[in-house]
Amino acid sequence: MQTIILLALVGLGAQLVDGALGMAYGVTSTSLLLAVGLAPAAASASVHLAEVGTTLASGLSHWRFGNVDWRAALKIGIPGAVGAFAGATFLSGLATDIAKPYTSAILLALGIYVLVRFTIKGLPGRRSDKPLTLKFLAPLGLVGGFLDASGGGGWGPVGTPALLSSGRLEPRKVIGTIDASEFLVAIAASIGFFIGLSGAGVDLTWVIALLAGGVIAAPLAAWIVRLIPARILGSAVGGLIVLTNVRTILTSLEVSDEVLGLSLAAIAFIWAVAVAWSISEHRKAVAAGLAEKDAATKADEAREAALVTD
């Protein structure tokens, strides 16, 4: 029963992060499932089965808030589904001793990316009026879908930064569009794993626990993002993913306890510094914004006073 509750909390926390950042549900959940010993294909299959429900709930929640560009969601989601089916088939065919370091390496790379990106940049807000084309979205969807299924995560870390950097959608619509399109990816990956694994190694109780936590969290994500700034949340989650997957990789390599402990301590220190830096930079940005707003208010008051004098 304790395991079920913990899995539900993992699903809840991962969905809160995913709904707020547009990434990291699969990466976070799969990392933790690998850490407790589940085989890579079974872990990814369990997460994607749960994501069928969580992405539907998340997509509907974002739609209600007007955060989804449905044209872009279909343009990236359909190729993403093709890539996810291929990735699930690929991972299902790998032996466990090969698949585990492969999956952990992908998750580690994605975790480093999330940690570095949000620590240094946060969520950009640059905008452009150019439309998102199929030529841009289709290859992005194929790569993101393949990595998502074969690595246990990757749809958000690949798709969200690419759409943000294009500047063609405002951040809230990028996150909503990526979350809504992930529903197609989750269905295709689940079908691929069902064919490849025939249900072997997938515990439906675990799936339901992850799903329950995620569904509860989906409508809360828009609320939580107002409490925890995206920059700080991204640094915190990225560090957790890095720490978890380094542990998995070093354990599979059978390193000594001393090496494992020192490595994890070093990563924990870097993680703490990154979060502290993000908090500091966020405070500076808030202070700068308040100063700019105050200066604009004073300028308006001066103009009004000048008009009254004239």
UniProtKB/TrEMBL annotation:
It is a multi-pass membrane protein. The chain crosses the membrane at residues 32-60, 72-95, 101-120, 174-198, 204-225, 232-253, 259-279. One of its GO terms (cellular component) is plasma membrane. Keywords: Cell membrane, Membrane, Transmembrane, Transmembrane helix. It is found in: Cell membrane; Membrane. Its main location: membrane. Pfam families: TauE. InterPro entries: TM_pro_TauE-like, TSUP/Inactive_protease-like. Belongs to the 4-toluene sulfonate uptake permease (TSUP) (TC 2.A.102) family. This is Probable membrane transporter protein. It comes from Microbacterium stercoris.
